[in-house]
Amino acid sequence: MTVLDETPSAPSHAGRAEEPILAAQGVRAGYAAKTIVSDLDLLVARGGITALIGPNASGKSTLLGALSRLVPLQAGSVLLDGADIHAMPTREVARRLGILPQSPVAPEGITVAELVRRGRHPHRRFASTRASDDLIVARALLRTGVADLVDRPVDTLSGGQRQRAWIAMALAQETPLLLLDEPTSALDIAHQVEVLDLLVDLVAEGTTVVVVLHDLAHAARYASTVVALRDGTIVAAGPPADVITADLVAEVFGVQARIIADPDTGAPLVLPRGRHGM
Hints:
Structural class: alpha/beta
Oligomer: single chain
Helix content: 25-40%
């Protein structure tokens, strides 16, 4: 079984390791009759940022979807806090796990404020909004830099603004586990760093984050654990320095690269080499 966080777990009162927040056992998943990830076992320990890396069509998004019930399982099981996620009520799952898929679709005409407020739905027993919900929504809007866009319809925003609005909705859900599929893909470099810094802040506040990233430098710098996938299987998992090596980059991505130490953090920094040696 692959462990997706190398940080030692604090022992429980019974002397056993703390139960992982998320676990997959023999998971096989895909779409219709097509299998994308096969017989995959993994554990996600509480705390930290786990980054899923790999080339296009390696199974990263399918794996994230299978862990969150968005993609149906063909075999195996997923446990959330030790319970079968498929046997849990939908509202209970939404209180414990927040998911931001790769290409979310907003209802036509919905405003940013309305979208972000939807993140509070799992916590509300009645239709009315509590004052505490308004405070949580306002904080999510501020933390993602979209507070000045609250009255704008989501479908009129730029790609980067729309992405940050969706991230704000996920934050408003206030779950102990957050799964994000390429949250920085539509953002400029400044907003990429802001979002990644925000994930670090969330972890410091007690959130566990699993995130799909394409940028290996971001994965190496921000993640506590990196998981490399190829052809629907996990090739390597562990601390960034152990996973992001020249051999792995060649094996998983088919690219020759030089790996140097980041001068600021010591994390691995990938310098790919093209056919012309550049």
